[in-house]
Amino acid sequence: MEDTNKLLEVLKNLEQEHRDLDEILFQLQEKNTVNFLQIKRLKKRKLFLKDKIIEIKNKLEPDIIA
To answer: How far apart are the C-alpha atoms of 10 and 50, rounded to whole Å?
Structure first.
């Protein structure tokens, strides 16, 4: 049960960071920022977070095929 609570907390934090990155990327693109390297790094981080979120969700709710 404690592991589940830890996973839920980590999941919540990762989802928040993912949303924050989404907002930052939107603002950078809206301002027509030309720093493509920064945008690329943020997008990579966002993809990494998405993979981690999926991994944790799968641990919490395993896909059981009966």
So the answer is: 13
CA torsion through residues 35, 26, 29, 43, sign: positive
- What's the DSSP call for residue 31? T
Per-residue pLDDT tens digits for 44-65: 999 999 999 999 999 988 766 6
User: Greatest CA span in the chain, whole angstroms?
Assistant: 51
pTM: 0.82
| Token output for 20 | 């924050």
> Residue 63, Cβ neighbours under 10 Å: how many?
6
Q: Where are the domains of the chain?
A: 2-60
